[in-house]
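Notes from the 1:1 (GR / supervisor)

We went over the backlog. Supervisor wanted to see one worked example end to end before approving the batch request, so GR pasted a single chain during the call. The sequence is below; no edits were made to it. Supervisor asked that the structure be written out right there so they could see what the output format looks like.
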Amino acid sequence: MMTEFKPRFLKPSNTTSFLDKDESVSIETTDFIYNKHLSQSIQTQRQRLPIFNNRNHILYLVEKYQTLVLIGETGCGKSTQIPQYLIEAEWPKQIGVCEPRRVAAISLANRVADETGTLVQQDIVGYAVRFDACYNNPKIKYMTEGILLREMMADPLLKNYSLIMLDEAHERSLYTDILMGLMKKILKKRKELRLIVASATLDANELQQFFNENPTGNKKNDTAVIMSVEGRQFPVDIFYVAEPVPCYIQASVDTVLKINSSKEPGDILVFLTGQEEVERTVRLLNEHENLIEQSRKKERMMILPMYGSLPHHDQLKVFRPAPDGCRKVIVATNVAETSVTIPGIVHVVDCGFVKLKWYNNEAHTDSLITVPISKSSANQRAGRAGRVRSGKVYRLYTEDYAVKLADNTPPEMVRSNLTYPVLQIKALGIANILKFNFPSPPPLENLKGALEILYALDSIDIDGELTKPLGYNMAEFALDPLYSKVLLSSGEFGCSEEILTIIAMLQVETVFTKPTTGNSVIKARIQKRLFEVEEGDLITYLNVYNGFIQSEMSQGFCHKNFLSYKSLKRVVEIRNRLEKMIRSYGIPIESCLRSTETIRKCLVKGLFPNAAYLHYSGVYKTIRGDIELFVHPDSVLYTISQPQWVLFCQVVHTTKLFMRDITVIESDWLLELAPHFYYKTTFYE
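Structure output shown during the call:
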């Protein structure tokens, strides 16, 4: 039975650009200075963007106020045009644009390079992301938030920049909040520095008050101001289900088929929570599509997945138009909510849930859990349907349920492991973390837990100061401190060659491809067994990498063994960069000649907080917190006799708490290598 919906109507966005209502402003018109080499079509495209009519307002407010909180819907042009306006207005120093995702930083830099008629890495625009950079002192520099944080270590006052733009701030990622806290301190020291906090949906008043330095209370002395820019938004019809659906995946499939059979024009975007759900839905839709007769071409669909770990060339497929007589159906995670604008979307199917990372302070583990979306996320998803024409949104939850949703998604700061951020803040000279001004203060238990782990890793001393040289060296790595500790300890164990490979392999999503057809699934499993060892996943990764290198990085080797060539090439690049870093610290690059015991002992040196033992009940339990864990089905240990003691790198919460990237260890190693953290006792149940 098809899912039934009740219609509701969402009015088009009526936000407009404005200045302070109590302030009368006279703005002198300024013509654009275009590059003569730009094509007329690019100039026309720039003028058609909603941000174009607000150019002079933006330049005026940036000149007058230190902080501009800019609310502009996705697609209005704020990320690409504002940096160009500032360059055209001849701002003296670099313009830095911070993006929460590396894909966004790279794609925006390429887009601006096209619009300015230059190439990335020339003097106009460049980008810098983790383990990759392409710039030569450009006027506009796109970068991820972690890169800007690391630049602050070398230049705490950011003297090379005249303006910093924090883009997509509504996502409230961990580093967004940290950067806002640090920028507030920097703005007090550098009155000439400017900050733009740009977002599609955000509590602007809260941020304006956070950055506003106005001790007198007189509005004329405000240092922060809010501006809103109208986006391209058409009316959107909202439909709710009449009754709660038992399975939103099946309901999503039914809704797509119902839309497709209605023959209403326009592409379809389906929001689900994770990669597994996306792949399952794509499979179900493809199975239905295969049953359609060739004569009914008007009802045919081109079904495409979209999620963060999808290979780049597959992600690009969603932006290409569908063939004639075929409708494009994109099944995506929340990566399509704000980070990208997919053209042609008219129908949106919203499952009403999102997968968020949440830190368990008792078990000291990060878990991915599925939770209801917030009202702001629901509106953001609905906005995808009103970009090109009037659209329709099908929400797979009732209208009464929608009213009860939280207004905003909890910031990542209050639900994340703070070990690495605290290490970075310490490296920036912030002595008292508890007094640091966060936009959304994290739980004290999370801060306390982070300090305890850093102390156990010997990166801070009993007074909370960074240790020399270990603490400072760990802060320079763009890695989890547990991994940094393993790398910096590898010289003591004489296995730095192997540890470099393992840590580099952990920086990519996966190197194994997952076929969907029956025969290929069996073949992929057989080929994976050739690399598997009883010591666990990390040693298996080492075998995969060594095989790839011995094949002279052959694509044929990857195809034969169902491995991702692009992921392994990425691993090689990351490994080379990490090797240069540890060489600079004087760590010898040497091999332990395949002694897996040495490698696993070295892993214990840094990953000791992530230890678990096999309980007599048949499940694994963490030593700290006594949390029940299970071996992930993708692990090489899933189908063999369960070892007594293991280390894990990650915990994923789906139906259960699953350990991923597991290594077999001995309990005595924990006492030998982490006696300050573990001790042996006897107890009776």
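Supervisor's comment: The chain has a mean pLDDT of 83.
Batch request approved.
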